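Hello support,

Our group uses your service weekly, and this is the first time we've seen a run hang past the timeout. The protein is Trafficking protein particle complex subunit 2-like protein. I'm not sure whether the cause is the sequence or the server load. Input pasted verbatim:
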Amino acid sequence: MADRPPAVPLHLTSLAILAPSNAPLYVHSFTGKDDEMRAYHLAHAAVDVIEERIVMNAQPNRPSDSYLGLLFCMEDMAFYGFQTPTKLRLVLSVALVDAVIKDADIVAIFRAVHQEVIRAIHNPFLSLPSSFSAVAAAPYEPAAEGEDGEGKKDGDKEVQKATAALAATRVGSTRRNEAVAEEEMFASGPADIKPAWLDSPRFRAGIERLGVLLNGGRA
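Update from on-call engineer: The timeout came from a worker crash unrelated to the input. Re-ran successfully.
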């Protein structure tokens, strides 16, 4: 009976998320900030291989999301590709080890990254114009329990004053929000995703946590 390959942690080295136009949306290096530019260039080098692999794998019965497999190996890293149903391209590099790297493990990583992307961009307010501004409401403290009717009336007066002040601020403000067409409000497609949408502490923490988890719990 053949020996099973040793179960070793997968050491992720970089992750790149590309738009359908191959423009970079997010680049992360698991080996440090200093390596992010190198990761960007290597991900860019994978674009031609991705395009060729997509054409080769184009089949009517193929699932909408496509695992593109091993793209190429360079130095001590192996690069894998994945395309989501909305044509986002994910490029993942893994450190080469003396063990078998299973495709099922790589696909699971890609799907976990895809879920993080979905959580990050499913904010309906991200598609609002950058010039959009909001006026903060005046703070309101509810009346304490046990107050008599007169106290409640005073509280209602305070609410009315705050509402009037807010309305006056909105009317007198020189900064007005541009009208957004109803069909464009809170609507965005893959081509509309901006790098800033993925530049959030929550998304970065999720990606870093994934790298630590696959690295055997070591940062």
